[in-house]
Fold these 2 entries.
Entry 1:
Amino acid sequence: MFRKVLLSLSVAACVSGTAIAQLQPCWSDEHHNHLLKVHPQLAEYEQQFEEQVAAKLAAKLTEAGDANDTVYYDVPLVVHVVHDYGVENLSDDDIYEAAKNWALAFVKKNADTATVLPAFVPYIGNARIRLHLATIDPNGNPTKGVVRHNSYLTFAAADEAKYQSWPNNKYINIWFINSFGSSGAAAYAYYPSSGAFMPYYDGVISLASYLNTSKTIPHELGHVLNLQHVWGNNNNAGVACGNDGVDDTPPTKGHTPGCVSSALFDTECAVGYSKTYISMSGLADSVVDYPDTTNAQNIMDYTYCSNMFTKGQCARMRKALTSATAGRNNLITTANLAQTGALAEMPDLPPVADFFVNKAVAVGIVTDLKTKFLTFNNDASFSFKNASWNDTISSIHWEFSNGASLPTSASKGIVNNQFSVPGWVTVSLTATSNAGSDVMIDPQAVYAADTTPVGGVGYSQSFASAGDIYNWPMMNYYHNQFRWQHFTGAGKDDNSCIRYRSFDTSDKIYGTASGDYDDIFTPAFNLEGVSGDLYLNFFSAGMVTSLSSSALRDSLEVDVTTSGGVRWVKLGGYRGTELANNGSKSSEFIPGASSSWAARAISVPAAYRTRQTFFRLRYRPGDNGNNLYVDNLALSSLPADIQDISKSNDQFVLYPNPAANGSTLAFRAGNDGNVKISIRDVSGRIVFEQSENYVQNSIYSTLISREKTPVAGMYIVTVTTGGANITGKLLVY
Ligand SMILES: [Zn+2]
């Protein structure tokens, strides 16, 4: 439920721009306001929490601050790096360095407090909050406080990218991602009241590029500890004078990024701002005349010359850490600090071995996206890159199967390799540090495709057994439930096919299919010298789980390569309602009747008819897809989409004909919708007969498999529909 809500929010709150200066620094208000709209009961919850905080803050905050409150609070952190092996895969050392830096502002040790304008020097607060990367994970295992998740969710990220969060009453979770998509925010976080409402999304999420930029993370941690923007949380920066519920931050409109004097000496909302405090001791009430300029250097403004929290903000953060809301008060307990190892020294742990296939490289060509498919003995290479982490790596050692040009290699960070034996390639990487070793073995690291053609025009594949697809590699790039698979339980003409499992069996709170993509590759075909029309035909049966326009995001793309996988060219594709030809269904879709299948024909231009032409089906699941089934993939001079039938007087077409491996019968249902198909051999004996009801005057097709016409020779095919018999010949060789 939250998933849809927040995605639509992402669109609404868009601020365009790519340069750092143009990014909206923080999206917390947008997320918070949207949550309030969708879950009005949150407002009541927030009000109760604010009343608790106000009661605790009733004492006047003098220039000395809350002099009696000198206790330090310690807080465990965990950093999640959600990455796809790009620049967002931040190094351990960069994270450790940044974490030290974030901590400074919470103990008033950041050096740039020296540049705070004199009027605000008396108000610089020391939150006395010490941040620590955890050294024990939720399972009780040692950690260095950084975990990594390889996922497409790093792109166009939102709350769903925060999967695998650690309990929010024990750790503050901070996720780093590559991008929030086109929407251009730098980071956002939730207040404790929102965190209590949806603990699995509680924490900070930020662009990896803002790891250590302009106090972005201290700002977001401010929100986690219940600080609002200095102009208030139902306002936008630069719009109207507002107030954040903190006395010593004067009212302000807030500012856009930039340390300009108009911001630093902005008096617009702050002139004459003072507060009267009722005496607690029966003596005279006192008035504090706060500065007449706004506190543009406040970490909760957007100026990026953010140098300070005020004393009032520090008191507010400390109250959040003593409140049970979202279990914040558990973070600082002695028991939790022991459980999370927050106060322990960072342990020396063995590395985590990891590698990825970077790009396929050839002379002058570097392919985009993940490339795990090349023909064996290809001039191009697979490029394997070490990505081991968790300790300073002293040595690495690679091993490769399949007649690799470099079967073993030590301490090379990048290995470009070619393979002389077709099939799946096993790659192992051993990473060693002073603290031990770790091995990563991937038995399907890449695929070296055989170049021997399995057929040409007339080829047909019905995926009858799993063995039929041994040379049809399926790539599940992100190792998740959304993937290609052989399926027995439905088929166009039999009980087997291949399918893309787009139906989401999870609760959809963690993760979303959107952004994933997966491939299945065909074997090589010999299409050299084929003239005239040529089609890659197949049948597909699809559905979605919802017919709303945002739900129709699933797509299937058909690509071709004549360079053994170095370069791919898109030939065609299907999406939306066209792909979901059976409409919508909230439960998992499995096709029933033969009429569930739609004929697909992709024209193969002459330029791609070589002795080694491969095709690739690339599926991109959306948020509300259901399964897509694909069957009877064939190469033919006639298209499976049978517009031609309706143009001509013929009521049916057989192709290929003559045929060696089955032929597709395309026909038009007549005025009564009833269609009877019968096939007789030359002796007149019926070898196949079928009668079914279809939508009247619509076009369908069915495969006459070779099993139905086992003996080579001539057959008589009769289609009876709308009160008419049409007869034709099928030649089987
Ligand atoms: Zn913010």
Entry 2:
Amino acid sequence: MVIDMPQLCKSQSCTGCSACANACLKGCIHMNPDSEGFLRPEIQESACIHCGLCEKSCPVLHAVGQWGPEPAKAKAFCVHHQDEAVRFESTSGGVFTALCDWIFRHDGIVFGASFDTSFQVVHMQADGMDAVSKLRTAKYAQSRIGDCFQEIRALLNQGRYVLFSGTPCQIAGLTAYLGREYEKLLLVDVICHGVPSPTVWQEYIRHRSQADAQGAKPIAVNLRSKITGWPNYSVHFVYENGVDYSAPNSADPFMRAFVNNLCLRPSCYDCQFKGITRASDFTMGDYWGVWGQVPAFDDGKGTSLVMVNNEKAMSVWNEVCQLFRYQQVDAASSLADNPSALYSPEEPSCREYFMGNYSNQDFGNLVNSLCPVITPCKRPTWKRFLNLLYRKIHKPE
Ligand SMILES: Cc1cc2nc3c(=O)[nH]c(=O)nc-3n(C[C@H](O)[C@H](O)[C@H](O)COP(=O)(O)OP(=O)(O)OC[C@H]3O[C@@H](n4cnc5c(N)ncnc54)[C@H](O)[C@@H]3O)c2cc1C
Ligand code: SF4
Ligand code: SF4
Ligand code: SF4
């Protein structure tokens, strides 16, 4: 008798969430990089017992939760963390740190994306604020989930609180994998533009280290450094030989490849997980457009937009909101300058050329030849100048 192998979702739609690999009790699904460096499940046929758990856990095959454009039930807030040092180290306004603070007060564990020692992006757990510093700042390459979903289920079954933060498709993967609701699980997604290839990111690190530091290893990397402010953030590398590199995001070749969609995962170009209505408890993003919408919060040091998506999240919000300066805003209009929340990025016609050539041509020259137009931040220039001046006088402690 011929037994059919499990049918996971189509390759083009696979988000690499790793739910299927976490679900397989026989350990016969391995997440391996494809030719572009994106992880994809590979099933070891000889070990498969045809239980179907992997198929049941795939969020692309089985829609879980709610995503879409329905009128928002969410309440939206414009937010600054009151602790200026936290805000300086955070991508936008520091919402994530405040939610971690709440979890630790409940003896819980936080999961989020960190750089490992080679600056690959991996999901890991944090059991206190020291470890949270590694999870802060957005890392623009797809993170490797590893066994995190199994660890989360074990912690929840022990009665622990858990916060999982990640892209909306990772939230969908975890939700489908768990297959039931847990009162003590807090799901926090980011507004997600898309995720670049981990291999392109590794090649860029190699390129940078050759160009800047004669091949020396980087010891710190920040793709959202606020040394030039928040709206016009910088990319910052520090190398072991003391050299450092800093460039505004609009001039850095990797960030230009990212925002021009040259190296995103194929599933990102037709993302099923965007929308105002979300399956997470909280959604957090940069409050792009705050300068026009809530000018009182536009100080150039980072503003978060946070969506409180349900009753559970609202009760947490009521306990953490004293850590913020905040103002409630209309959920739908707050996204006017943030298309990534609602719409998939467009796949450029030169993507294939870029993906076929980034490793055999000069990275910077290739990006320049494919996307010569630099998209400046829409924030008025005089405001940026005043903020730079202000920051020079008032450096954070
Ligand atoms: C790949 C990516 C694309 C994004 N695109 C947009 C966008 O288009 N518009 C927008 O408004 N906001 C976007 N964001 C979200 C935004 O940059 C901030 O992460 C968010 O505003 C939280 O702000 P914070 O100050 O609280 O963050 P921080 O304290 O700096 O926390 C950063 C959070 O991002 C998570 N994270 C970091 N890197 C990754 C990764 N590679 N994969 C999964 N999770 C990760 C961390 O676990 C942490 O929870 C994106 C984030 C990521 C990771
Ligand atoms: S059908 Fe069961 S054993 Fe086979 S790969 Fe899927 S989860 Fe593993
Ligand atoms: S569960 Fe995730 S990684 Fe596995 S096939 Fe589905 S989308 Fe891909
Ligand atoms: S754009 Fe969609 S598919 Fe791509 S990483 Fe973000 S949530 Fe996942």
